[in-house]
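Fold this: Alcohol dehydrogenase
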Amino acid sequence: MLAVKLPSKETIKVVEEPIPIPAKGEVLIKMKASALCRSDLHRYHGKVLFDETEEEANITPGHEPCGVVEKLGEGVTKVKKGDRVAIYLGLGCGICPDCLRGDVMLCKDFQCIGFQKNGAHADYMTIPEENCLLLPEKMDFITGALSTDVGGTLYTACKRLNLNGTQTAVIIGCGPMGSGGILMAKGFGAKVIAIDLDNKRLELAKELGADYLINPKEEDVLVKIKGITHNTGCDGAIVTAGGSTPLNIALNAIKKRGSVALIAESNKAQIDPSNQFIRTLNTLMGCWYFNRSDWEEIANFIVNHNIQLNKISSDTFSISEAEKAFPLFDSGKTQKVVFTWD
């Protein structure tokens, strides 16, 4: 089988490997779609995430996958050959309170496919059966792949913000995650204000259903938001762009007792706690992936509300074309780049 490797900084290799054999409790997945993520680019640029060892830095990347169960390991009873599945990226101890609650990403022994374990940018991969997320019959494979990292995370953010048809949400950053946020927020019924410095991304935001578009290079963001919200501010904000500026825009754009869901990774940011929290009673919440037990709810929401996540897949490649796919995604000129298989 073919598999992608990142042997050194900004170097992609597609290698031949034996098809892995599922161990006890595992299944073999024949891949159908595997999306590139900004986290893949951290490894592409030689940055280490999740305390990788040197050996782990050479594994196959890919943590937004979808495929078909090809073979069962010993003791597998919950899935069967031929099942169409997305894959939950987190591996945990299985017995701590976080794992038992479904928040595997919070486990002290958390491991992530594509980082500590071989991931999905390959023709086949093995995974514990409990990481298999059954796809609704009407969900295609690209949508299935994008329903995990993008769909699941943004659904969770919208749910925690309590968005509904009476509310206005601002989404700061209209890359793949922000675009997914637009689709999800509209699915919850909210009016959406989309903010980005790139007018092409704002054009897509409009196509995805955003009600208002703001480019901070062309107009005053807060003045525009006050006009839209009749001087009250937004009910909630989703931040998918890193750094101090996007976060401060969000905190200043929401009304009193409003909430901000922070998704963008950022090592540090400077804010004004007194004026943005204490005297406004606002809430800032971290949103990282989704609770595994919520998958059926998320998948049904996407199908029943016709959330067209596949619209944010701008480019598809075969796995043999990985050397083209990574630099293209790294250019920032695309939305989601997805490897696909027939």
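DSSP finds ten helices and 17 strands in the chain. Residues 2-134+308-340 form a domain with the Quinone Oxidoreductase; Chain A, domain 1 fold (CATH 3.90.180.10).
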